Amino acid sequence: MTTLQQEFVNIDRHDEPPGLRLTLELDGATQQDIERGINAAKGVFALAQVSSYAAAIAADYQALEDPELLLTAEQHEWAGIWWDAQEAAVAAACSELPAGEKTFLFSQTWDDAPEPISGNCIRGTTWLGKETQE
User: Fold this and answer.
1) Which residues contact 74 (CB under 8 A, 6 or more apart)?
2) Most buried of the four, 26, 108, 109, 114, by CB within 10 Å?
3) Do the domain assignments include residue 85?
4) How far is CA 119 from CA 94, 105, 122, in A?
5) Does 11 reside within a domain?
6) Backbone φ, ψ for residue 115 (5° rounding)
7) Which top-rank group of organisms is this from (predicted)?
8) What are the backbone angles phi and psi of residue 122, rounded to the nearest 5°?
9) Predicted model pTM
10) pLDDT tens digits for the chain (134 residues)?
11) Is residue 10 part of a domain?
């Protein structure tokens, strides 16, 4: 009987490949809205002391649910940081937009890569409501 030894995925929490950058597409957003969103996401990564690259890789592995690609408990936390950063980016970018349903794409790309084709990406949707004082 052979026992397979399971190995964890090797991800460096500080790995930040040159030329990699965060992107945000958001319905009705201005460049200032996008910059505000990206800066909010960067703040989440900085606070967690994990690179956006490491968090995105962890989130990708987590989504695969492959029993041979195991994440450590810490790496599962990094995946959560990716989703927290996405939420922060969208909330910050939408803070000055009118209430309503917004479609967004939060991702990473390389400086020299062609612009992503949004139709080939999974896009999220959020509903933003403005609180009113009565």
Assistant:
1) 13
2) 26
3) yes
4) 22, 11, 8
5) no
6) -60, 135
7) Bacteria
8) -85, 120
9) 0.80
10) 455 556 888 999 999 999 999 999 998 999 999 999 999 999 999 999 999 999 999 999 998 888 888 999 999 999 999 999 999 999 999 999 888 888 899 999 888 776 654 444 444 555 555 443 33
11) no
